[in-house]
């Protein structure tokens, strides 16, 4: 019995260790980040398509109103075109001798009055025929405009409903991915602020928003904390760095050592004056964008095992050692993030 209990304990410990290893898999975290970014891109594209469609609908509605106005005008002209015929008929039959003027005309004994009356009849017939043709044309145009207006309205409503449903589906998918990413970060010791169901400061979808702030003036709420206490980066850079740090942990048994990450404007000014020649002009540093870190724990020593490992592996996670940092000034500890070079599948 004791042996069985010990075996169960060992089994549970092994399971827990395997679960922890899975939680710390840098590839998994990177995959979640990329899924979140892809979902964000799809959502953005669908939202733009919806906005474009709504703009098109607004234009179509404007066109629809114009067509309906045209229809009303056509119907008004239709009513007006009937009036001359009715008036002319009434006028002719009110004229004396009109009804008795046909026989003299046929016998050749018609006088000027009879001829005038007959001319009026001829004019009436001609105008009536023209009026009938105009009425038919207007009726046909009215039917066409009405059918077209109905088709435009139905098409607009259907298209907007379909796009709205797609945007809603993509938003739910995005929220689900971000939630999974948040849970993974929490398991790695990241203290993530939340608003509703989605991560707030560590939501990679907010990276573009953080990029809208001036260098060194990104609000704390827009920055994602690292495992290394007191340091933070822009969300996409932070998640990529955490993935990189977990891969580094697998190699060296410890996370990457960080001395500096995001620097606000005041911190940039302080470093600039304390270390002349080794810091960018305040307001121009990538630290102020949340896209750079200064490392320690061996990485700061050029050609050390840690530095060489970083050179070989960091680009898989979007991090690299810039060319200038090899010589002018020489800063082996300085590393930067560029999402375009992230090659980890």
TrEMBL record:
<feature type="region of interest" description="Disordered">
    <location>
        <begin position="1"/>
        <end position="40"/>
    </location>
</feature>
<feature type="compositionally biased region" description="Basic and acidic residues">
    <location>
        <begin position="1"/>
        <end position="11"/>
    </location>
</feature>
<dbReference type="Pfam" id="PF02557">
    <property type="entry name" value="VanY"/>
</dbReference>
<dbReference type="GO" id="GO:0008233">
    <property type="term" value="F:peptidase activity"/>
</dbReference>
<protein>
    <submittedName>
        <fullName>Biopolymer transport protein ExbB/TolQ</fullName>
    </submittedName>
</protein>
<dbReference type="GO" id="GO:0006508">
    <property type="term" value="P:proteolysis"/>
</dbReference>
<dbReference type="InterPro" id="IPR009045">
    <property type="entry name" value="Zn_M74/Hedgehog-like"/>
</dbReference>
<dbReference type="InterPro" id="IPR052179">
    <property type="entry name" value="DD-CPase-like"/>
</dbReference>
<dbReference type="InterPro" id="IPR003709">
    <property type="entry name" value="VanY-like_core_dom"/>
</dbReference>
<feature type="domain" description="D-alanyl-D-alanine carboxypeptidase-like core">
    <location>
        <begin position="231"/>
        <end position="339"/>
    </location>
</feature>
